[in-house]
Amino acid sequence: MATASLYFHFTYLPLYCLFFDLNFISKSLALAETGKPVSFYDYSGPFFLIWFFPLGIWFVQPRINRLYAAVINPADCIGSSLRSE
User: Fold this and answer.
1) Is 25 exposed, middle or buried (0-12, 13-18, 19+ CB in 10 A)?
2) Which residue of 5, 11, 32, 71 is surrounded by the most CB atoms within 10 Å?
3) How far is 14 from 28, CA to CA, in rounded Å?
């Protein structure tokens, strides 16, 4: 019984945390880009790109850099939700 409990804690709990983190990060990225609530269809691309880490970050990083640049210099932002009124 003790080994089953250890197996659960060291296998399934980290997997749950991994997918929770992937979901949170990709949903936050899509929300920051659009400025409105998003469904899984809207953020499934970043979800899977971040999951396949080395290659996915190659494509996600420019999007994050654009958001960061928009916060630093709001006049250069693309989305209307990022502009300061």
Assistant:
1) middle
2) 32
3) 21
38 near 84, Cβ under 8 Å?
A: no
Residue with tokens 């936050």: 28
Q: Please report, to the nearest 10 degrees, the dihedral formed by the alpha carbons of residues 61, 62, 68, 71 taken in order.
A: -150
Number of structural domains (the chain) is: 1
Distance CA 2, CA 56 (A): 38
Q: Which two tokens stand for residue 32?
A: 């920051």
Tell me the residue range of the domain where 78 lies. Answer: 2-82
- Confirm if 22 and 47 have CB atoms less than 8 A apart: yes
Q: Which pLDDT does position 78 carry in this prediction? A: 54
